[in-house]
Amino acid sequence: MGGQKLLESLKIKECDRFPSRVSGYCNWDSIKLIKSCLSEKQLDMFKATCFGHFLNVSDMVLSGQFCHHILLRECHVKNDEENSSHLWYHVGNGVIRFSPVEFCLVSGLTFGEYSESTSNLFKRKNSRLRRSYFQESKVSVKMVVDWFRNLIPNNNNSDEDMVKLALILLLEMTLVGKDDRNAILYWALELVDDLDAFNRFPWGSFIYARTFNSLASCLVGRDDKFKDKFKEGVDAPSKRKVERYNVYGFLTAFQVMCDN
């Protein structure tokens, strides 16, 4: 998408493109976990939330190589008045845009402004759910995943708490897209305790910003780094002649947008 825009220049010249090994942290195993751990009643409750539509996603595979080949084609275009929040890629005979519009269409997440109360929320770390289900000083994404994997069938957890924790699982494991050794968003664990407030939160704005920032910066300087690392005459095994980097955020939305 993006309309009739004229290509101005490529950010990485075609002759400077390089092979890579990309790590993306958008893991869709969260859906399988949720479906296997929640009861039918709890799944119906989950479907009524702002993330409910993601339960319809099945067999989504993230292709780091596909994303890398698109990222290599990032370009400048003429007359883009809102370029601070847009990314453009030269594909085929035209250009495609990644912006809040495309992200919203693909993800189904809502956009909006953060309120003053939201700014204060970001500072909060000690929630009822954290005290009740996680006693450790640091709660990582992996700990939340393991909590679900080790869940005892027919447990005594309330329906609401199961749905709330499942929302955090999907948020952290799939939408935020980060290394599972990292801490979860503690403020989100407090926000989800008020489901109405959680559903009203502009998750599209929050997740798009994280995804945009990662996509916009992940290749900066890497073409020069690759050339310096493997200059002519340097003897290195062929399997090492790739540039490795990570991409964070909801990379699936980027992949789906580019693939369509």
What does it look like?
- It is a single chain.
- This protein has 260 residues and is an alpha+beta fold.
- The chain has two domains: 1-26 and 62-109 and 203-234 and 241-260, no CATH class; 29-61 and 114-201, no CATH class.
- It is 44% helix and 11% strand.
- The chain contains 13 helices and six strands.
- The strands form two sheets. Strands 1-3-4-5 form a four-stranded antiparallel sheet.
- Strand 4 and strand 5 (94-98) form a beta hairpin.
- Helix 1 runs antiparallel to helix 8, helix 2 (40-47) packs across helix 8 and helix 4 (100-107) packs across helix 13.
- It is elongated.
- It starts with 6 loop residues before the first strand and ends with a helix.
In short:
The chain has 13 helices and six strands. By secondary structure, it is of the alpha+beta class.
The profile of the biggest β sheet is: 4 strands, antiparallel
Walk across the major sheet and give the strand order: 1-3-4-5
How many domains in all?
2
Order of helices and strands: EEHHHEEEHHHHHHHHHEH
InterPro entries: DUF1985
Protein name: DUF1985 domain-containing protein
Domain DUF1985: 81-211
Pfam family, one: DUF1985
